[in-house]
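your task:
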Amino acid sequence: MEKGRTPARPRWVLAVLGVVWCGAVLGGMTALARYSNTAGPVAEPPARLPPDSALRAAPGRFLLVMLAHPMCPCTRASLTELEAVMAHAGGRADAHVLFLRPEHAEAGWEEGALWQRAAAIPGVTVHKDAGGVEAQRFGATTSGHVVLFDAAGRLRFSGGITGSRGHEGDNSGRAAVEALLRAEEGRARHPVYGCALEDAAPLVAGGSTP
């Protein structure tokens, strides 16, 4: 064998490893993109503000409600977008963020970093949603779901206010809510990108975050 030449078999092995590595990277990127752009199930919210809900807006104002999972990392972006909505709302909306508190969860389980983040947004009131009762009333199944009711109690918007999971920035959902608050035309629905609200059981048991 001539000096300086790499044996044929090692070159072949390296080529195969290179192909496998590229395939793994491409597959990982594809899976991540698919995950980021996979929305939660389409919700069926009530056409009017549920009469048995404890939430009400002041006369003449919109009522905005976000249903959230306190352990969902995607929800941080939803709260950032909510902060932008409230900054542009001009005092026309009363906003509430309801954090799921599963049955049998320890006291204060829901009052983590996301709770503190939501509580710091001007014009937003934060509540616990014990057992997900309010989420069921509003038909929400995915963290970050927003419902907007006008002063007459009619549903004007239902959906998310981010463009994908954990993605901050301009998007059709947030734009729709802001347009409706300005008494302009806006789309009535937008996909919700976030963790399933029902994924609470493993967290209470000490499992990983959703």
In short: The longest strand covers residues 93-101. The two ends are 57 Å apart (CA to CA).
